[in-house]
Specification:
The complex is a heterodimer of chains A (403) and B (259).
Chain A (H helix, E strand, L loop, with lengths): L1 H14 L2 H24 L10 H26 L7 H19 L12 H5 L15 H25 L4 H20 L11 E2 L3 E2 L2 E2 L3 H27 L1 H11 L1 H6 L4 H27 L1 E2 L6 H14 L5 H20 L4 H15 L3 H20 L2 H6 L9 H9 L1
Antiparallel strand pairs in A: 1-4, 2-3
Helix pairs in contact in A: 1-8, 2-8, 3-8, 3-11, 3-12, 3-13, 4-6, 4-11, 6-11, 8-9, 8-11, 9-11, 12-13, 12-14, 12-15
Chain B lengths: L2 H7 L7 E12 L2 E12 L3 E5 L6 H9 L6 E6 L3 E2 L5 H7 L1 E4 L11 H8 L6 H6 L4 H13 L15 H15 L3 E5 L7 H14 L4 E5 L3 H7 L2 E6 L2 E6 L1 H6 L1 H8 L2
Parallel strand pairs in B: 3-8, 3-9, 6-7, 7-8
Antiparallel strand pairs in B: 1-2, 1-4, 4-5, 9-10
Classes of the chains: A mainly alpha (403), B alpha/beta (259).
């Protein structure tokens, strides 16, 4: 009975090194224990009280980090630079936003069965694609299905035609831009310019209550941690090694009998689904979704987060998203007009001086510190270099050769 | 035909012939890279293909591996697999391996990982997610590392290897891949004499069970390999036979020395 179970679980636990598990535990404790206590139990005005603003910001950052991890999966591992990931994020947000709009009930300005923007357009009933969205469960299915399906269809055509590199990046830009124009139209049925806002309830709880806020934040962090584990497992499996091989030499991989199409399509679709989930978590926390989330600049910013953190490292994507967005929060208050210049400067600087991002910088610094230590202890590496040497047990042996 | 089917059906070599190329013509913008080329390679045969630049050697390999579709002619692997209809992936899974002119190993992957990627199993996405090397597969990787003399480099990124080591790693990947038909494009380009001798030995070991087609410029190396020689010129076969025979052929001498 334990056989198939083990084969599923052991790689997952082996995939993350001990240092990763410690960081995992620290973040989980902060998110699930410390932040709720400081926000809900410690009274307002106390030094240790966390304000509404701080919790909302932290939840927002967790969603951004999730998107960055999703982009790193396709860019860092498969070499697919998407400059349209904001689209999948926004679609997830809109799908869940439909439920949030219907959960307003009769509490809108016009106190109608329909959302205010539909009353304003003089619509008498919901368009067909709103069917079932009063049920949160169906909205959550859509959150996964809509970005996933769009990504699958787009990816199938793009990868089958062997569109790569900047050409693919440009097409993803065009895709998100076209979607933005579509969503700007009132007739599309998603609130046009203004999008969705004025949410009142989520799963029956008031959306702005401290308890709801903390729950949404904790859920965002939980999804982020779970996604990191999943992606970490993916990239350390043979699937991940094939994906990186495709990144470095697609036609060579084909000669070995792997079909790059399905590998890329799997990573690409999964990445889009993760973005969709991030969008769904984001919308109730910021209280609004509108077509500007689909702007090309937004998607480019996601790529900058990943580049700053260090692509191909997963955890770097999280770090990049946090660092750039915290800088943005501070900068847009201190020097509101200069932020975009500064963002451009960061990107140029990272490209020139930190090609492996902040994580690469940390690795390099650590390696420099270790050089003197290595000279004395080089003998240990010699036996380890022979793969499969002394690996009697079945579980750890695969890693010997391939780790 | 799905890639699975190709693997299940296998190559039908009941007539003792591995590769049929009959009347193959490929043109690029009016230039005929291959012109009515006809070539047969038997099971277990080691065949050398020589010819001046632009004779169509690489294009011929592209046709066999499905990279280039011929404008005319028939290309079959064994009796039943039509190479002009199968995709590159299907052809690779059917058992055709190829080594490119430039060494193309995965530089970011370790040497052992390169060999793992060449393993002819778990090549579908679903399988790759849970694939772990079996003890036999691991043993094969260890044996191959030894054979291509890369045991000490197993855990190093392949990008750090010397040129000659990369060539050997690629040959090692082909050993692991265990193809039925092996196409080698200039396997000793840029190697030292000693490395060349060792490579010739490796390639001779490959033949016998498998069919091997080697494209080469280096006549000494061709001589070391032995086997039949086919001379290509302007996209078709100019001469065929033992090395001594084709070297004595006046048409070959004219192509190489004349004009």
């Amino acid at each position: 009975m334990s056989g198939p179970r083990r084969s599923l679980l052991t790689p997952l636990f082996q995939a993350t090194p001990r240092r990763g598990w410690i960081a995992f535990g620290v973040v989980a404790t902060l998110a699930f224990v410390v932040v709720p206590l400081l926000h809900l139990v410690v009274p307002a005005g106390h030094v240790f009280h966390l304000s509404d603003y701080t919790v909302a910001l932290a939840g927002k950052l967790a969603c951004y980090a999730l998107v960055a991890v999703a982009l790193d999966l396709v860019w860092g591992q498969a070499g697919i630079l998407s400059l349209g990931h904001g689209l999948f994020f926004a679609l997830g947000g809109y799908c869940f936003g439909m439920y949030l709009m219907r959960a307003i009930g009769h509490d809108g300005v016009y106190q109608s069965d329909l959302p205010d923007f539909m009353v304003f357009l003089d619509w008498k009933r919901y368009p067909w694609y709103w069917t079932g969205t009063e049920h949160a469960a169906w909205a959550l299915v859509l959150v996964v299905l809509v970005p996933g399906l769009l990504a699958f269809v787009f990816g199938w055509f793009a990868f089958r035609s062997r569109i790569r590199g900047v050409y693919l990046s440009i097409i993803t830009q065009a895709l998100t831009y076209a979607a933005m124009l579509l969503f700007f139209r009132n007739e599309t049925g998603f609130g046009g310019n203004n999008g969705f806002t004025d949410f009142k309830r989520i799963f029956g709880f008031p959306v702005a209550a401290p308890g709801t806020r903390v729950a949404l934040f904790a859920a965002s962090v939980a999804v982020l941690l779970a996604t990191l584990l999943l992606c970490r497992w993916l990239v350390t499996s043979r699937f991940g090694r094939v994906l990186r091989a495709i990144r470095d030499g697609e036609s060579r991989v084909r000669c070995l009998g792997y079909d790059p199409l399905w590998y890329k399509l799997f990573a690409w679709t999964l990445s889009a689904v993760i973005c969709g989930v991030a969008g769904a978590l984001y919308v109730p926390q910021v209280g609004i979704i509108n077509p500007s989330e689909m702007s090309t600049a937004n998607s480019i910013e996601i790529a900058i987060w990943v580049a700053v953190g260090g692509r191909g490292t997963l955890v770097g994507a999280v770090i990049g998203a946090l660092v750039v967005n915290l800088a943005k929060s501070w900068f847009t208050v201190a020097f509101p007009t200069l932020w975009l210049f500064f963002l451009g400067l960061i990107f140029v600087a990272v490209t020139l001086f930190l090609p492996d991002g902040l994580v690469g910088l940390a690795t390099r610094l650590r390696a420099r510190r270790r050089v003197p230590a290595r000279a004395s202890g080089s003998g240990a590496g010699a036996t380890a270099a022979v793969p499969g040497a002394g690996t009697a047990n079945g579980t750890g042996s695969g890693k010997e050769v391939v780790a | 035909m799905s890639p699975h089917r190709v693997e299940e059906v296998g190559i039908d070599v009941s007539h003792g012939v591995m590769l049929y190329l009959e009347g193959i013509t490929v043109s690029f913008d009016g230039f005929k890279a291959l012109n009515d080329l006809t070539l047969y390679v038997n099971v277990g045969e080691l065949r050398c293909i020589i010819g001046p630049n632009g004779a169509g050697k690489t294009t011929m390999m592209d046709v066999v591996t499905g990279r280039t579709r011929p404008d005319a002619g028939r290309a079959f692997l064994g009796q039943s697999l039509d190479l002009t209809r199968l995709s590159e992936v299907q052809i690779a899974r059917a058992g055709v391996g190829r080594k490119f002119q430039k060494p193309t190993v995965f530089e970011q992957h370790t040497v052992a990982e390169n060999l793992e990627l060449a393993m002819p199993s778990h090549r579908q996405v679903r399988q790759s997610l849970l694939a772990e090397l079996t003890p036999e597969e691991r043993q094969r990787i260890v044996a191959t590392l030894d054979e291509v003399r890369l045991t000490d480099e197993a855990e190093r990124p392949a990008g750090l290897l010397s040129h000659g080591q990369k060539q050997w790693l690629e040959i090692g990947m082909l050993l692991v891949q265990d193809p039925k038909l092996l196409l080698l494009d200039e396997p000793v380009a840029g190697l030292t004499d000693e490395e060349t001798a060792r490579t010739a030995e490796l390639i001779r070991n490959l033949a016998g069970k498998r069919s091997v087609v080697v494209v080469e410029h280096d006549m000494d190396f061709v001589e070391k390999l032995g086997g039949m020689v086919t001379v290509l010129h302007e996209g078709s076969v100019l001469s065929e036979g033992t090395l001594a025979k084709v070297q004595a052929d006046p048409r070959v001498i004219e192509v190489y020395l004349g004009r």
